[in-house]
Amino acid sequence: MSSKIITLRKPLLSNRDPKVEEDSKPGAVTAPAIFTNISRYSLIVVTQAFAGHLGNLELAAVSIVNSVISGFTMGIALGMGSALETLCGQAYGAGQLDMLGVYLQRSWVIVNTTGLILSPLYIFAKPLLMLIGQKQDIADAAGTFAIWTLPQWFAYTMNFPVVKFLQAQQKMMIVAVVAAVALGLHTLFSWVLMFKLKWGLVGAAVAISVVQCSSSAGVYIFLEVRYYRTLILIAGYLKNPEISVDALSICLNISGWTLMLAFGYQAATRFASKTLHALFSSSVSNELGAGHPRTAKFSIAVVVINSFLIGLVLAPLLVIFQQEYPKAFTNSEVVTKFVSNLTPLLAFSVVINSVQPVLTGAATGAGWQALVAYVNIGCYYVFGIPLGLLLAYKFNYGIQGIWLGMISGTVAQTCILLILTYRTNWDKEASVAEDRIRTWGGEPNGEETMNE
């Protein structure tokens, strides 16, 4: 009698935490993810809002550091550790829980080594900014702020892998609680140190560094966000650089705040019923690792639609209150007017940005980090930034030209990701996920072999 090998796949839930289905309810997973992203981004917003009430120079300095120095370094760190999201998500979906800790430790080594290599950018921020042509007073203030935020940088390199580790396991509630506490403490510390003790920018840096070092959740940053921050640097070369940087940074803060809703969907684990599974980023990787390509495909469509509808709701609110919301960040009437003039473009950006992070999350969950990086570089740095420079300087559109270039890059990237997602063979991606898990030391979906 001949013998042959039969491969049996265990049911998905037999290899998962039995609480997974109980926790996979809309309010239990999507809301914490959205709240976490908004809270973490609000740390930056609060710092810049307080700095804006110190003065235009202080706001420009904080914006330059957060956008250029921190944006660049955190973007690099994210790239170095981005594989963790895919590997942990697919390992969890396949039931290989023992591999999660291994992946986390490897990511820590890589990301923290990257942190040490990039730390001189904070230490020598002042001469670097002057080298690339920033004004003396802005470079002085930014250099002081950058040095005092160095502890925040090392906190990020430790916390970023932990967040991805927990996210892959659908454990967003603890991250949300920590993020809420961090935001409350940061607001209190910033007010006391900056205004009561009159430490100014040093107080702002100390506040955010203390909170980040004591928090188990770091701030977010993505490659396309680093592109947005590069535009802050470009604005520093326009006429009235302080006003231009201040106005653009306020708009980027509002845009980033609304982006957190979309990133919440991107990071959301799963909200489920008998017929619907809406999953993102780690959840797409969960389902691919578990061998459920149709679930992943359907979920992407549902979340894209939901995120787009959120953008359609938020955009009109910005237009309605375009004369009021800038006052939360600055006392300057000139800056307020600049921001108000940019609001129609900002509103359009909100709609586009409600979809783009969701598509990026799907690509990341499927393990397409390299492809997404190439798309981002092409759309943002080859197309968007040059177009913004052309409109701003050649055609004298100023800050509006910079923003138009930014929008153009985002629209191009969104269109490409939509096409790629639509044309993807998700059955094939599930097979690739299995191969990836094997390569990194796990066994996909708890496969077993037996002789017949």
Automatic annotation (TrEMBL):
GO molecular function terms attached to this record: antiporter activity; xenobiotic transmembrane transporter activity
Superkingdom to which the source organism belongs: Eukaryota
Main location: membrane
GO annotation, cellular component aspect: membrane
Mode of membrane association: Multi-pass membrane protein
Any single Pfam family the record assigns to this protein: MatE
Signal peptide annotation: none
Protein family according to the UniProt entry: Belongs to the multi antimicrobial extrusion (MATE) (TC 2.A.66.1) family.
Name of the molecule in the record: Protein DETOXIFICATION
Species this chain originates from: Stephania japonica
